Amino acid sequence: MARHLYLRRRRNFIRAAGVGAVAAGLAGTTSWLGGELEAAQNPNAQKLADLKKSPLSTSEKLNSYKDITTYNNFYEFGLDKGDPARHAGSLKPRPWSIVVEGQCGKPGTYHIEDIMKWFPLEERIYRLRCVEAWSMVIPWVGFPLSDFVKRFEPTSKAHYVEFRTLVDVKQMPGQSEPALQWPYVEGLRMDEAMHSLAIMAVGLYGEVLPNQNGAPIRLVVPWKYGFKGIKSIVRVRFVENQPVNTWQQTRASEYGFFANVNPDVDHPRWTQKSERRIGEFFRRKTLPFNGYADQVASLYAGMDLRKYY
């Protein structure tokens, strides 16, 4: 079967079923020439000044601003890769606040402007690996999730951190469709949340985070598949029991809680051994934990990663 027909049939299947992963199409090319971006960023976006450079960043070639902002999943705005860029203008990222609750010493409602003042912002250039077997390299701007967590003084009963996305059909028209259960929910085990690689991102390419990429604040966990990176967060809960994340609710046989990038555990409908970096023609080998195994493998010592996928 021709690839374009295969991809079309898969997309039609997803829409009919209301669940599953949208296949990676052959869209997006990098615009990197001589170390400079050929295409400029959004000229109207707020620039983020005094950014620290992180030693945790990869030195790999970045995907272009166009790649990153026009090819992604954000089902709150539609099922196709280009839908977020087309429809996310309805999102109003200001004013914005996050409710913090659960097993912590400082619950409350906190405004995004105040949160951004608490921590020095830094650029983190990370690989992103989607569960659909495509990947990018993205220059996020943010701060360590561990610093955010410690700010609220979680108690000894806080074994997990749960995150929830905004629910507002007027701002997020894709929520009128039953593709997923809303709100989008994600979670991390506390030791994962406290790892130095996990960040809360508030920017991209030195500018405030575009709506289609999860404005005004999202989670980035680079050793996990991209669907763990919950966007447009409005609620954070410190909980004792493991949250049931959205894709577990939707299809638990295919999407687990941990979602660590693992080339040895295939998705039931496609291999995870290789990936297509957006902008490249040839596929590349997928690395365990998305290439971050040296830093994070110890978190899962003794665990059966086929069972805890």
Concise account of the structure shown:
By secondary structure, this protein is of the alpha+beta class. Helix content is 17%, strand content 23%. The chain has a single domain (3-300), classed as Oxidoreductase, molybdopterin-binding domain (Sulfite Oxidase, Chain A, domain 2, Alpha-Beta Complex), CATH 3.90.420.10.
Overview of the structural elements:
The chain is globular, with a radius of gyration of 18 Å. It has 309 residues and is of the alpha+beta class. It starts with a helix and ends in a 13-residue tail after the last helix. It has helices at 3-17, 65-70, 83-87, 112-118, 145-151, 190-193, 246-251, 293-296; strands spanning 32-33, 36-37, 52-53, 97-102, 108-111, 122-129, 134-144, 160-165, 185-189, 199-204, 207-208, 218-220, 233-239, 274-277, 284-285. It has a single domain, classed as Oxidoreductase, molybdopterin-binding domain (Sulfite Oxidase, Chain A, domain 2), CATH 3.90.420. The longest helix is centred in the N-terminal third of the chain and has 15 residues, at 3-17. It has 8 helices and 15 strands. A hairpin with a 2-residue loop joins strand 1 (32-33) and strand 2 (36-37). Strands 3, 6, 7, 10, 11, 12, 14 and 15 form an 8-stranded mixed β-sheet that branches. The chain has a 5-stranded mixed β-sheet with strand order 5-4-13-8-9. Strands 1-2 form a two-stranded antiparallel sheet.
